Amino acid sequence: MRKLIVAAMCALGLVAMSTSATAETTAEPPPSSSVTVAPGTVAPGATVTFSVTLSNAEADPLKGGKLGLGVANGAINQLLDVSTCADCYQAGNTIRYDIGDVPLNGTKTFTFSIGVFANAQLGQYGIEHQFVGDNYSYETLSGPTITVTR
Fold it and tell me: Which secondary structure element, helix H or strand E, spans residue 126, and what is its range?
């Protein structure tokens, strides 16, 4: 009887290990937004280029999709000049870029350039990004850093 109990406990242990290994290998959905910027270090008056991927892993199509950009330590509208980007506009303390609807499990990838104000304060700016829609939005994520120096 003791051998039967030990054998049963060993079998349960193997099942538990197999289940946890399966859970660990399950792929996480991609982040809702992924943003890079180049160059990362610029002088006031220079231009930066954003490369963006927006992914919709929710249960519904996202209507009226937009990229929202902000800075962790200030107002992005004091760093980047929306008038230098044809498809950008200001919304409060954020800059937005319209991309349209994104179907379930769909992604949109794009790049755009925008100028740094000639009078931008020198320093490092942590860029925050968010995939925003008319019917729902994703969380705000930390992104790249732009360093403004002479």
Answer: strand 123-132
